């Protein structure tokens, strides 16, 4: 089986811009499915049904019947043309069947996060029944390309994305030779799907080594009845386990459009962090974290207009 990185090496590093850019999911947009082998009408229809069987997927997969028996590069070049001719074609994502009897497909993401902070062409492998939902998740930033590459590594034994120079200049899992002096900020979200905001806060966040990021992984508190109390409860624990987190400042995503007025708010944390953290145990068992979670420092909106 040809690996996804071998396929990536047959494609350009970057794709051309689309005449019809797509931001988020859009009804009626199709995920083109190209076959590298010639299929009969019956086989094409069966492939279509298999791809669209996920109950939670958008059922957006559309098998291209008049362009089969090609190479991946030829499919890529074809897609580069039709995405500028037909606005119902997904401009950044398409699916490829390698073999008629294959249980997996290739997914080509033209907006994968690159090592230099720019989008690159990425190729992943997934089970056939997962491809439809994968496109939807990439559209809404629910799961990013690197997470899918991690799943591919586990399921198919593919190369780790962290050692692929297309995505990372160096393996972010490897410790640095020097101690980091970076201060990172904790941030929370009271609106769903906070990962969609991270590229605004810190462009290229997913590709930055964890010990070099200025913002840690977001804490989604939208599901709680009292999200502000959850923020006050959770923040001391975050500081306890992550020494580089700023003890006195935190951010909260409050609106779906964080560029809007007060879409992202900044708060001062009113506490003596080191003193209070030194007075409570640091226990990895969640059932034993009541002491640190009960600190619950007050938060003050930095411009003084709001207090939680």
Keywords:
2 domains; 5-stranded mixed beta sheet; 9 helices; elongated; alpha/beta; Rossmann fold; 25% helix
**What's the gyration radius in Å?**
23 Å
The share of residues in helices is 25-40%
Q: Low-confidence runs (pLDDT<50, min 5 residues)?
A: 304-308
Instruction: Indicate the CATH topology of the largest domain.
Output: Rossmann fold
Secondary structure: number of strands? 10
Protein name: HNH nuclease domain-containing protein
Structure description:
Helix 2 links the parallel strand 1 and strand 2 (61-68). It is built from nine helices and ten strands. The chain folds into two domains: 4-163, 3-Layer(aba) Sandwich (Rossmann fold), CATH 3.40.50.800; 184-301, no CATH class. The chain has helices at residues 4-8, 41-51, 72-82, 131-139, 145-156, 198-201, 227-241, 273-278, 290-293, and strands at residues 30-35, 61-68, 89-97, 104-113, 119-127, 184-189, 219-220, 245-253, 264-270, 298-301. Mean pLDDT is 86; it is low at 304-308. With 308 residues, the chain is of the alpha/beta class. Helix content is 25%, strand content 23%. The chain is elongated, with a radius of gyration of 23 Å. The strands form two sheets. A five-stranded mixed β-sheet has the order 2-1-3-4-5, with helices on both faces. A five-stranded mixed β-sheet has the order 7-6-8-9-10, covered by helices on one side.
């Amino acid at each position: 089986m040809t690996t996804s990185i071998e396929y990536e090496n047959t494609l350009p590093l970057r794709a051309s811009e689309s005449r019809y850019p797509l931001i988020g999911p859009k009804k009626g947009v199709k995920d083109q499915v190209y076959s590298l082998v010639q299929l009969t009408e019956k086989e094409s229809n069966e492939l279509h049904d298999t791809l669209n069987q996920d109950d939670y997927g958008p059922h957006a997969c559309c098998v291209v019947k008049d362009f089969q028996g090609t190479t991946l590069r030829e499919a890529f070049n074809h897609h580069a043309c039709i995405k500028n001719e037909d606005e119902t074609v997904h401009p950044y994502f398409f699916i490829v069947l390698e073999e008629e009897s294959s249980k997996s497909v290739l997914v080509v993401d033209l907006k994968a996060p690159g090592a230099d902070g720019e989008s690159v062409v990425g190729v992943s492998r997934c089970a056939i029944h997962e491809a439809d939902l994968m496109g939807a998740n990439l559209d809404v930033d629910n799961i990013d390309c690197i997470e899918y590459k991690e799943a591919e590594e586990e399921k198919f034994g593919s190369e780790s994305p962290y050692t692929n120079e297309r995505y990372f200049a160096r393996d972010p899992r490897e410790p640095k030779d020097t101690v980091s002096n970076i201060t990172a900020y904790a941030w929370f979200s009271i609106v769903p799907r906070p990962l969609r905001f991270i590229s605004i806060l810190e462009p290229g966040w997913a590709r930055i080594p964890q010990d070099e990021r200025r913002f840690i992984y977001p804490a989604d508190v939208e599901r709680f009845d009292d999200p502000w109390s959850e923020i006050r409860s959770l923040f001391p624990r975050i500081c306890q386990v992550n020494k580089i987190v700023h003890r006195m400042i935190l951010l909260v995503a409050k609106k779906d459009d964080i560029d809007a007025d007060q879409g992202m708010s900044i708060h001062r944390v009113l506490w003596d962090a080191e003193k209070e953290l030194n007075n409570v145990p640091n226990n990895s068992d969640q059932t034993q974290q009541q002491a640190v979670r009960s600190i619950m420092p007050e938060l003050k909106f930095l411009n003084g207009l709001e207090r939680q």
